[in-house]
Amino acid sequence: MAFDIEMIEKVYSNLTSRVDKARALVGRPLTLTEKILYSHLWEGVPSIVYERGKDYVDFAPDRVACQDATAQMALLQFMHAGKSKVAVPTTVHCDHLIQARDGAKQDLAFANKQSKEVFDFLSSVSNKYGIGFWKPGSGIIHQIVLENYAFPGGMMIGTDSHTVNAGGLGMLAIGVGGADAVDVMSGMSWELKFPKLIGVKLTGRLNGWTAPKDVILKVADILTVKGGTGAILEYFGEGAKAMSCTGKGTICNMGAEIGATTSTFGYDDSMRRYLTATGRQDVVDAADKVASYLTADEEVYANPEQYFDQLIEINLSELEPHINGPFTPDRGTPVSKMKEEAAKNDWPIKVEWGLIGSCTNSSYEDMSRAASIVEQAVAYGITPKAEFGINPGSEQIRFTIERDGILATFEKMGTKVFTNACGPCIGQWDRAGAEKQEKNTIVHSFNRNFSKRADGNPNTHAFVTSPEMVAVLAISGRLDFNPITDTLINDNGEEVKFLPPQGEELPTKGFAVDDPGFQAPAADGSSVEVIVSPTSDRLQLLAPFAPWDGKNITGAKLLIKAYGKCTTDHISMAGPWLRYRGHLDNISNNMLIGAENAFNGKVNSVKNQLTGVYDEVPKVQRAYKVAGIPSIVVGDHNYGEGSSREHAAMEPRFLGVKAVLVKSFARIHETNLKKQGMLALTFANESDYDKIQEDDTINFLDLTEFAPGKPLTIAFVHSDGSKDLILANHTYNDSQIGWFKAGSALNLIAAGKF
């Protein structure tokens, strides 16, 4: 039986009437996305038509999911909300704090010892507040959500940008910051600008070496890392129906890499098969009663150009395997073009590592298809040229692939099996030799490949591709190997050619697991004590941020003018810093240390205007904080791209940064800044970015008149006494301005005014 089946049945009981009302209001057929949005309005039954890309709307998500790194701060905030129990079903998953090094058993034991304090905190706080807790080693959050909680037509939010993975089961699943999650856990509405809609029509059928991963790699190449911003992608067509449910999840997962709010697919037989295989026949029975409401109206897919703001069409029968990268997930190269592109760009051809897993590609189908390539290599007598590692997506996946001999196949080739956790995908990889910072190439099936993300080496060229392509590239040891046309020489000097991968969508014997690693919460958590040591360097209770004093911000200093790509990895790195995710003071020592200073081209080197000396960004900002001097950060396009981590907003807020002024924001980061009481502003004229000088002092001239739709005027006073007046746009509505005035959204919740 499914978790929370009563909640799911309640969603379906309201679905038909709310969708019918919305269709009548809008006056036309509805997309699946619109059906889910209008059936999850905070007001209940729809009463007005919302304008895409313009109207802010309050929603009522069905559930919340948190991973351990972000859950710490989210739950520390929730403890301030004054609630005895979460208002909607919520889960916490321990998957980020387990470092990949020696292998599953040793790495998990080390993590349980090293992070015991954090795991104990998460276990106890979950037990107290009615939250389901998935223990270390149970699996990766998004794979577990797909296996246990996702359901067609539902809406969920999660404190990880790849929450969108659940779109593979027909949900609208959206990554948010912890403060958003706290709102929903506290029984409040969740606000989102009504998104635009991008339709992706998939014709034909995947075949040969092409996998679901190649669909999203192609879409990323088309739309770029910001092309989906403010939009939801809805996939449909014969190619979509022919694809597995977990394959759909892979596509939705990497929608985060194009800035999309989320992605989804309509309810179909692949979802029925997956739900049944994972023990949720009751969800199938309930969904089948409202099946026509769990996909778009027929007219929409028949004439999609009339209903979507943008339409993309991909013929899967003609789609080539893609290898995207390096350093950005939207630089797509078809496998047939890699030899040419690698030579032209001087990319290292030798593949040092192949890595399969992460929340993107760790399903049974992924593992079985990759194993079919490994099996061929073993049969052909080929010694792999690169090292090889896998992360199973969950204990259920690991147990099942061990039972079915898939793990044994990998191990015949010397594969290192890491813990059921994120591992290298989020920088939790103690890679031997990475400290030498040598130029090298790795291939992986993850979702992100930003500089330094996997192993901390800025010279590691990481390429994203499908699990089966990872396997064959690792075996060949060459980035430019094309398995469709090329051959290899085996250990006996014989020429051999790989056959296309084969695999099972679902295990024929069914899934199996001894201990999935789940801890149900106490029925009454009132007596459960949550202990946080005042001397801990891993956990720190939060103090409320101070409210705005009602005055213009004056005398502020420029902390940094960031140049180029500035993701949340640049603003608040993961890797070894994950250990401090529950300690705001300590984690703030990584603030913006990866951002490039536009004035000297260096990272973690900015001018302290009080001394004239260049120093590390956090040290300079702490000096301003001690002196009582406010500061601002200036950035480029798509600032805050990447992870949902709210630490990238909380750290500057904690250290005294008042505003972030950029050319454009990634959606989640902009919201995170707003929720923490920061000013998130954009240049009205992007060329004004060039006017910002290193020694500038900044004065806000009309912050006292802060209002929706009204730009702010900021004076940048240069060291020679001259100044530039710059207009800064914003997207704050009245309630968000209330967050700023109160010091944070949480302050309003705690005061009972939200």
From TrEMBL:
User: Which chain positions lie within coiled-coil regions?
Assistant: none
**What cofactors does the UniProt entry give for this protein?**
[4Fe-4S] cluster
Q: EC number(s) for this protein?
A: 4.2.1.3
Domain annotation Aconitase A/isopropylmalate dehydratase small subunit swivel: ranges: 557-686
Q: Which SUPFAM superfamilies match?
A: Aconitase iron-sulfur domain, LeuD/IlvD-like
- Pfam families in alphabetical order: Aconitase, Aconitase_C
Q: Keywords in UniProt for this one?
A: Iron, Iron-sulfur, Lyase, Metal-binding, Transit peptide, Tricarboxylic acid cycle
Q: Which GO terms describe its biological process?
A: tricarboxylic acid cycle
Entry superkingdom: Bacteria
Mind telling me which PANTHER family this protein's record contains? Answer: ACONITATE HYDRATASE B, ACONITATE HYDRATASE, MITOCHONDRIAL
**How is this protein named in the record?**
Aconitate hydratase A
Q: What is the scientific name of the source organism? A: Flavobacterium indicum (strain DSM 17447 / CIP 109464 / GPTSA100-9)
